[in-house]
């Protein structure tokens, strides 16, 4: 079983509450099929409003689907029992777009990173938690001095690093990254992309990278899926999708992208 | 918008049902003996309280009693008020017009002075006039109306003897209740004009002066503030600058152009303000011995006249809900930016 | 952030005036037993200087004079400050607790629970606050405790709505989604993440309502529906002066002190809170200046 995440025929509509009956106001997902291979990085690109975020929310269990199935490690998340659900929670993790909103403003980085441990009771003592937190913080490129800072005392890129550290806390297998760079300054975007690449290797993660930024997807992803109006219009290895697009929509998307080949590695930028 | 109004109209009976039930349930905290008064039409019946309790099932469950009360209320029977010495429904009919008269006059004062002072403050933004008006509005907002009322009464009645408490003088009382004076609306100011009796007209106005000024105090602040900020907003807009560039006089710019648009929020606000006055009338009418529904309510509350309290509170709540609905409709009508979904 | 708000208060003249007034009254309330040692078993019971009915103007023995039935105005005003804080703080506290519990439940549970709780607040909003407070206070009888109950009963719905709205907006934030992703339970998310991020605005709004609440409480007392007779309560003191607005034949303003002193204390108290509240609202909402 090489696919860690499988999405089959997933559909979701948004409803408007009418006076007497519900009316479909938007077709967010329309029969989506997708697979994420073990240790693979799949880029999901498309214009905003095409259903990318809805898909992420359904996979993460934040929203119900109308139809279809989502398998994680071969288990259907929609009819998992309690124990399976707990496993799924540990397998999945997420990074969001808005770094202001994704960290609790009243908690220090220490508390934010420790929360997953406390919820699952995986680490018992304070020392263990502290040691693990520092390890996580270092692995996202922040030193332990940052532990006692509040979110507003970090820069946007640093906040996203803290969010990544929290996402890694439970040693997940899948990371759903929903536009993790789009709210950041261009200069910082590259750093975060590099970070994602790093941790993907180090933690043997499978990443679903959702973005409207085709260059970022090109840099990070082995496979790319293109989404339009809630449907996957193209899905395949990054090279073939980007170099030889099959649909008009992908061609239009590509035409709109400035031709910068890949973000510069961090060392060169710093120099 | 139509949908929103429809929804509110459909909710109205439900809200009233809830509010009257709440008030009714509150009165149930009292003993059945006291509540028996609700069903007594004539003071002579007072001797047979036990029979009344039996007959009207005052020991029944709240819901049973409430539905009975509601049934009677629909027939216009709200019980007998020993305080007013008449059935509650009659008392309401008698006292309500006075309150409405007071509220309308007050509202006219609030709107007129509120707009005037608001414009004055906006035109002189950050100058002494502005600060003075702000100080005035926060002071009037903070002064307890019963203190203001008593001080005004002490000075203008006690010292100067200009304005007496009550709704009309003794002479007017004789005229009003004498032959030849027809009671058309219950609103004395209007009735006196319809009867072409100017003595009563001016007498009634004179008795409204102090209560209206007192009742104004709490409402000024918001009116002035809203007028000021909406005027400032309009004065900053392009069309105002264009009007100035055309060479129009400043007063024409202020009143004809900016003022016309700035007044919209004030119109909608005045609907809400009008409804809010209802709470204030309770105190003002008490201070000035003004025989309106508010002082009737206070008297009932002081005497623990359950029927009276219940009737008073339900009538006021009904007016309040209707008024708020009207204000909301006014709001959606005048302010196209607001959309209710 | 809090530092800058404080700095702005100090810079705004009206806010500073408001703060000064509030601090002054708070100091009086805190030091009441020192300023005016209690003379009765119940310290809020105002001592009487004689059996004469008519008020006496300020003199050496009663520096603020006496009001009807020789109640000492100075004692009553000073203990009245303590009473004002007692009532204001109690009402704000209980109304906030109720508001947080009910508004929180509505926002957290959503669906029909939310619908029912919000319709209940609609019903309470359908009756003017003063009128409902009056009805409750009248039915319960004139006691401080009952006055607090009546005022709490009419105050909580607006806090419940406020808190509900704030919770619903915090609920949308991504850190809540993140916590759900790593498997935090509903109650944990609510208590650790949502509540701490949503109740502070309501607490600020509610504490600024103290002026208004004391004003309403005094109105109840003025109508004879609040504190029991003889209590150190500004509203009741004003009510006592009601029979004396006409003064004497020689001096129509002979008893003015009986209205002006307690009325002035109440006015300054409410003014202080309103100035402070106005300034804070301006500072927190910079759109209007």
What do these coordinates show?
- The complex is a heterotrimer of chains A (271), B (341) and C (289).
- By secondary structure, chain A is an alpha/beta fold.
- Chain A contains eleven helices and ten strands.
- Chain A has helices at 52-59, 82-91, 99-102, 109-120, 126-139, 156-168, 186-202, 214-220, 238-243, 248-255, 266-270, and strands at 3-17, 22-37, 41-45, 67-72, 75-76, 92-95, 174-178, 206-211, 223-228, 231-237.
- In chain A, the strands form two sheets. A six-stranded mixed β-sheet of chain A has the order 6-7-8-3-9-10, sandwiched between helices.
- Chain B has 341 residues and is mainly alpha-helical.
- Chain B is built from 14 helices and two strands.
- Chain B has helices at 2-27, 32-35, 49-56, 62-74, 88-123, 128-142, 145-159, 170-177, 188-194, 198-235, 238-245, 250-287, 293-303, 306-334, and strands at residues 80-81, 86-87.
- The radius of gyration of chain B is 24 Å and the shape is globular.
- Chain B starts with a helix and ends in a 7-residue tail after the last helix.
- Chain C is built from eleven helices and no strands.
- In chain C, helix 2 (13-35) packs across helix 11 (256-284).
- The radius of gyration of chain C is 22 Å and the shape is elongated.
- The mean pLDDT of chain C is 85.
- The interface between A and C is medium-sized, with 28 and 17 residues.
């Amino acid at each position: 079983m090489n696919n860690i995440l499988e999405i089959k025929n997933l559909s979701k509509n948004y409803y408007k509450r009418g006076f007497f009956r519900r009316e479909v106001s938007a077709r967010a997902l329309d029969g989506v099929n997708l697979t994420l291979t073990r240790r693979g990085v799949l880029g999901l690109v498309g214009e905003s409003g095409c259903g990318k975020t809805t898909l992420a929310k359904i996979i993460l269990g934040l929203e119900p689907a109308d139809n279809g199935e989502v398998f994680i490690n071969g288990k259907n998340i929609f009819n998992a029992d309690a124990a399976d659900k707990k496993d799924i929670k540990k397998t999945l993790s997420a990074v969001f777009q808005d770094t202001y909103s994704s960290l609790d403003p009243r908690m220090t980085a220490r508390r934010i990173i420790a929360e997953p441990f406390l919820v699952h009771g995986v680490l018992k003592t304070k020392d263990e938690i502290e040691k693990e937190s520092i390890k996580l913080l270092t692995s996202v490129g922040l030193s332990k001095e940052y532990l006692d800072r509040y979110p507003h005392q970090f820069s946007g890129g640093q906040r996203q690093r803290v969010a990544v550290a929290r996402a890694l806390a439970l040693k997940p297998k899948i990371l759903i990254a929903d536009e993790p760079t789009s709210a950041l300054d261009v200069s910082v975007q590259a750093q975060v992309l590099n970070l994602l690449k790093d941790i993907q290797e180090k933690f043997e993660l499978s990443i679903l990278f959702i973005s409207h930024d085709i260059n970022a997807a090109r840099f990070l992803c082995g496979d790319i899926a293109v989404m339009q109006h809630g449907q996957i219009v193209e899905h395949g290895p990054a090279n073939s999708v980007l170099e030889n697009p099959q649909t008009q929509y992908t061609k239009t998307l590509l035409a709109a992208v400035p031709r910068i080949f890949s973000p510069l590695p961090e060392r060169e930028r710093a120099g | 918008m139509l949908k929103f109004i429809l929804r509110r109209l459909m909710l109205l009976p439900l809200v009233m049902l809830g509010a009257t039930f709440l008030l009714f349930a509150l009165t149930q905290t009292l003993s059945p003996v006291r509540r028996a008064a609700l069903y007594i039409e004539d003071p002579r019946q007072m001797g047979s309280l036990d029979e009344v309790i039996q007959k009207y099932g005052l020991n029944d469950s709240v819901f049973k009693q409430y539905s009975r009360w509601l049934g009677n209320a629909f027939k216009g029977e709200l019980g007998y008020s020993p305080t007013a010495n008449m059935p509650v429904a009659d008392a309401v009919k008698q006292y309500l017009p006075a309150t409405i008269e007071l509220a309308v006059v007050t509202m006219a004062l609030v709107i007129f002075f509120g707009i005037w002072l608001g414009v004055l403050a906006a035109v002189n933004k950050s100058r002494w006039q502005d600060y003075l008006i702000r100080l005035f509005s926060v002071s009037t907002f903070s002064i307890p109306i019963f203190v203001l009322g008593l001080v005004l009464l002490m000075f203008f009645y006690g010292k100067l003897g200009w304005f007496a408490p009550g709704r009309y003088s003794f002479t007017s009382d004789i005229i009003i209740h004498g032959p030849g004076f027809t009671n058309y609306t219950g609103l004395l100011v209007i009735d006196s004009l319809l009867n072409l009796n100017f003595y009563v007209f001016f007498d009634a106005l004179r008795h409204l002066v102090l209560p209206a000024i007192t009742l104004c105090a709490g409402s000024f602040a918001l009116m002035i503030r809203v007028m000021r900020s909406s005027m400032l907003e309009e004065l900053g807009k392009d069309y105002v600058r264009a009007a100035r560039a055309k060479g129009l006089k400043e007063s024409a710019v202020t009143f004809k152009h900016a003022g016309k648009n700035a007044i919209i929020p004030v119109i909608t606000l005045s609907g809400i303000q009008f409804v809010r006055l209802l709470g204030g009338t309770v105190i003002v009418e008490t201070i000035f011995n003004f025989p309106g529904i508010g002082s009737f309510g206070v008297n009932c509350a002081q005497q623990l006249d359950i029927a009276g309290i219940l009737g008073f509170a339900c009538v006021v709540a009904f007016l309040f809900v209707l008024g708020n609905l009207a204000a909301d409709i006014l709001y959606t009508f005048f302010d196209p930016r607001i959309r209710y979904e | 952030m809090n530092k800058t708000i404080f700095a702005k208060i100090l810079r705004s003249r009206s806010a500073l005036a408001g703060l000064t007034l509030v601090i002054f009254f708070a100091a009086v309330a805190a030091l009441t037993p020192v300023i005016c040692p209690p003379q009765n078993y119940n310290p809020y019971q105002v001592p009487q200087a004689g059996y004469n009915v008519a008020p006496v103007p300020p003199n050496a023995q009663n520096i603020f004079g006496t009001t009807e039935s020789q109640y000492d105005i100075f004692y009553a005003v000073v203990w009245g400050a303590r009473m004002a804080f007692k009532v204001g703080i109690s009402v704000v506290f209980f109304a906030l607790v109720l508001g947080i519990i009910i508004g929180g439940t509505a926002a957290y549970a959503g669906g029909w629970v939310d619908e029912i709780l919000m319709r209940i607040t609609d019903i309470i909003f359908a009756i003017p606050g003063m009128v409902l407070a009056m009805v409750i206070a009248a039915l319960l009888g004139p006691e401080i405790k009952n006055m607090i109950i009546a005022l709490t009963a009419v105050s909580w719905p607006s806090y419940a709505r406020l808190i509900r709205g704030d919770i619903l907006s915090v609920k949308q934030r991504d850190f809540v989604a993140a916590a759900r992703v790593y498997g935090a339970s509903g109650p944990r998310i609510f208590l650790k993440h949502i509540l701490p991020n949503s109740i502070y605005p309501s607490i600020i709004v509610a504490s600024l309502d103290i002026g208004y609440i004391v004003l309403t409480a005094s109105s109840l007392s003025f109508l004879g529906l609040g504190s029991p007779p003889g209590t150190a309560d500004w509203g009741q003191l004003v009510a006592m002066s009601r029979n004396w607005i006409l003064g004497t034949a020689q001096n129509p303003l002979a008893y003015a002190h009986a209205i002006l002193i307690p009325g002035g204390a109440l006015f300054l108290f409410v003014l202080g809170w309103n100035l402070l509240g106005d300034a804070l609202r301006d500072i927190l909402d910079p759109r209007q200046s």
